[in-house]
Amino acid sequence: MRAPRRSLAALGLTLALLTGACGGGGDGPSTADASPVSASERAAAAGRQLAKNTLVPLEGEPPTPELPVTVDSSDGRKTTVEDASRILPLNGGVAEIVFTLGLGDRVVGRDITATFAEAKKLPQVTKAHDVSAESVLSLRPTVVLADTDTGPKEAIDQIREAGVPVVVLETATSLADVTTRTTRVAEALGVPDAGKALNRRMSDELAAARAAVPRGSKPKVAFLYLRGSAAVYLIGGKGSGADSLIEAAGAVDAGKDAGLDKPFTPITSEALVRARPDVILMMTKGLESVGGIDGLVKIPGVGETPAGMDRRVVDMEDGVLLGYGPRTPLVIDILVDRIHRA
Question: Residues annotated as region Disordered (predicted)?
Answer without folding.
Answer: 56-78
